[in-house]
Amino acid sequence: MNQQPHAVVIGGGIGGLAAAIGLHESGWRVTVLERAASLEPVGAGIGLAPNSQRALDVLGLGDRVRALAAWQGDGGVRARNGRWLVRTSAAETQSAYGGTLVMLHRATLVGLLVAALPEGALHTGTRARLTDAGTAGRRAVVTTDEGDIEADLVVGADGINSAVRTALFPAHPGPVYAGFTAWRLVVPAPERTFAPHETWGRGGVWGSQPLKDGRVYAYATARVPQGGKAPDSEKAELERRFRDWHDPIPRLIAAADAESILRNDVGHLATPLTQHHRGRVALIGDAAHAMTPSLGQGGNQAIEDAVVLAHHATPGVDLTARLAAYSAARVPRTTEIVRRAARVSRLTHLTAAPAVAARDALVSTVTRLAPDAVLRSLSAVTDWRPPQIPSPEPRGVREPEGSAAAPGGKRVCPVVS
After folding, report:
1. Domain membership flag for residue 151
2. What is the pLDDT of residues 225-243, one digit of tens each?
3. Is residue 324 part of a domain?
4. H or E element in which residue 153 lies
5. What pTM was computed for the model?
6. Distance CA 343, CA 294 (A)
7. What is the β-pairing status of strands 6-10 and 102-105?
8. Distance (Å, rounded) from C-alpha 207 to C-alpha 338?
9. In a domain, 10, yes or no
10. Considering its fold, how many domains does the chain have in total?
């Protein structure tokens, strides 16, 4: 019988995979349960800021991610007509934060994380639900189609509509619509190069970010009623909304494959959780603190969660106390970032023309008078430093926490128990 304590991660996204790697490094036997048949992120990029890169250093992946950085020159924020409101450079960001933004395709990051998992840890096509959160003296139980799995620790990494969060905190109102929808697309390399930029217009945003492989990751948002879809195609919708915005926006839309454009309403947890754990279960990523994409920190905070959880959830110690320490470390930081992202979302989605003009003038003036103002305003987010994951104790000498026997004669999943 394997005497290592067992951690079950529900959800095979970026946060769940990172948590599994970190927990494995700290001495846990890990199982990742993902309901999708395969891990194939489509049509989307992710920006990894210096804070998450430092967290990936702890997992041994930071330098591999940095090698994928494409941004080497100027960039910033532009107005709809192309006028620069904020100019920044990779060198300035490096100086301010000790690192730059790395933009890459989500599939690339997922591939790096999967390769770092222990063999046999990932199980796709597996539906899982939390049926018992456990206590200090009783293991948690996760139910799958193949049977029940007892776990010393469960990690809820199942996204913004987390069933694990609902099971732990049934009275929480859950995610709410942030007031805008988002499109994401990856297009072939354009004929003419351009500086990375985010453009703020009236009631919407456009972003164009080159990738290392020559393609461009683009995203757009617009303030629209919830649940809407284009009457013809999402590419046609983007053309209608952004055809008179500055270059390269119209040509990027023209180059897009209409079938690969993703559209999703944006939600967030406007009501924060007061803790990110209960019993033997910890929440990470969007399950714990879904935020709008305005600061580009959603995935970054999930990676932070993973490393902090692995730091606190040391095998052989009082797990309930350590999970309380995890919550204490993460709730204040993520709550503030969720609120900050919401404030930026309101600023970037102003619809009244006078308010948009005043916003652009204010941002441009502040940047001219204090060129590093934008970088300094984000330092509280990107300056974060991770804790180290403790080395595991010698394995095979300790009983798992809680009862080793299946309570109540529960059937245990033979594949992943």
Report:
1. yes
2. 999 999 999 999 999 999 9
3. yes
4. strand 153-156
5. 0.91
6. 9
7. unpaired
8. 20
9. yes
10. 1
